[in-house]
Amino acid sequence: MRKHFLFFALALGAFCSCSPTRVVVEKNKYEDFKLSNYSSFDFAQIDTPNDSLAPYGEIVDQLKRNFAEAMEARGIKQIASNPDLRVNFGVVVEEKVQTRETNLSTDPFTYAGQRNYYWEVREIPVNTYRQGSLTVHIVNSPGNVLVWAGMISEVVPKKEEKKPQAVQNAVDQIFEYLDINNK
Hints:
Elements: H1 2-17, E1 40-43, H2 57-73, E2 77-78, E3 85-101, E4 110-111, E5 117-118, E6 123-140, E7 145-156, H3 163-181
Parallel strand pairs: 1-2, 1-3
Antiparallel strand pairs: 3-6, 4-5, 6-7
Helix pairs in contact: 2-3
């Protein structure tokens, strides 16, 4: 009996440790989309120059390289004229503040004179970080119809040398989702 319980506990632990993708897609919306039904793609062109995109230029270029490699690994070629699909990225990076809630064991009462004390639960900032969100829209080029949209959000690494791997991980998770859910 004990051996069976140990085996069950190990199997459950292994199952739960497999991390699912963090890609968010609207439920029951793009069930008919099959990446394998298409043979070519290109990236959407931005017609209007926009200075607000300048800080993200390097990230978008890397996204395009990683995305193109993943598409071509699945037999979908990048062509500039009349592709089957157009891919558009949306990148948002926000400054966030990590907080914790006060409690009596770590944040005792504060006294201000005789019988003039109080204690309340409040949020205390403990760290700042940058949250990056990547939205991917895949559009059927001839009909200009959105056929798939997904989003992934991750903490952006502070060290520059770790950012390329974070971008690669985001693209890998998107394609892991597409491979699993769109066969």
